[in-house]
Amino acid sequence: MWPTIHLGRLSVGTYGLLVTLGYLSGALWLRCNRWEMRAPFKTFWQLGLCIVFGAVAGAKLGFWIVEGQYFLADPMWMLRHWKMGWVMWSGFLGTMLMGGIYQRWHNRRHRPRAYLPVADYFAPAFAIGHVLGRFACFAQGCCYGSPTSLPWGVRFTDHASAVSPELRGVALHPVQLYEAAVEALFAAFLIRHVLPGIRAKRYTYGTAFLGWLCAYSVARFLLEFLRADDRGTFLWSFLSPSQWVSLAVLIGAGTILYRRGIYERDPAGRSIFLRAPAPAA
């Protein structure tokens, strides 16, 4: 693990640096595709800030809920150690909520129909940022995997890592890197195939967003079986909270995608993404 990067006399936390770069990389990709979303400069950054706020607030709130017993025992410790404890699914739900609230406010004088067209572009952006987020987990030693005899097993020996003492020095599945690789593949597929198909009116709006939700839910559900860190329990102990959320998201997103269909049936009836006209390049 590499919890700290030393640049001369300056020391930077690797986790915080990579997470920040993850947000910035996703935002940069969106910025490069702003004209496709027909979003003027002000609208684009207002929506982006709302989504970042939703991601941060949702991720921390989810951690406090999952680790409720520790939060109630010492809430100030949980608040002081801000860099620790982020829940991906609750952070993502926070982005959906804030994105929906902003778009309803933005289109308050018109029927708000822009959610899925805009969400199609945020899906690969989120996947890109999540790749660096999982590298941050790997550098910090959190979200670690279960013991393995495979040749690429990783041993965490630093006492500053989040790995349980009994697993330090034991070869573990690099689950963080597995998930980073999966998200990179999802992002590449969305950018290279699905989004061009939506722009060419072969696929319906929402195919990229809903398809990514389904694919990531399946991947996350399976990868959770390879993790060894304490993620809490919910309902039955053989499934983690993230697995239950993954199942719920898969059913919900899959149902919507099935009902909407993947292939565009009415290209002429498409709505404009956002109310304002496309900005000049």
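(ticket continues) Second input and output from the same batch:
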Amino acid sequence: MDLVIAQESPLASDVVDLLRAHLAFAGQQSPPDHVHALDLDGLCHPSVSFFTARRRGELLGVGALRLLGGGRAELKSMHTAAASRGQGVGRAMVAHLIEHARRQGCHWLGLETGTGEAFAPAHQLYATAGFVDCEPFESYTRNPWSRCMAMSLVS
């Protein structure tokens, strides 16, 4: 597949464009107060590791891992460019982020995603990777717009 996943700045121009598409997608699917995607400042925070997926230099997807403390981490800003969906980019990014969390010493990995039909492919991706539904964590709440999922990283 010659897909290269690497840590990169979220401030690169093509990355900023894809992150804008990510925020626009989330904003079309959920009310503004239930869009939990990190903005650029959030993605540049020291607790966040940000990664890109590229093929021959072309940006195909992004993903981030935010350390929460106490051996816990959260997947953030998972997004695959529309033209690259169905090619395994998201699956490769999730696998990379899971391994990165393990290397960081994490024993628990969570995520929050939307609940609408547009999020069904993401739900399937996360379930296939081993995530299961969980109670809201951190500042997330039980509501009709959010779905929290988690997995143990303890072997």
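Agent notes: The beta strands are 3-7, 48-55, 58-69, 72-80, 108-114, 132-133, 146-152. The longest strand covers residues 58-69. Closing as not reproducible unless the customer responds.
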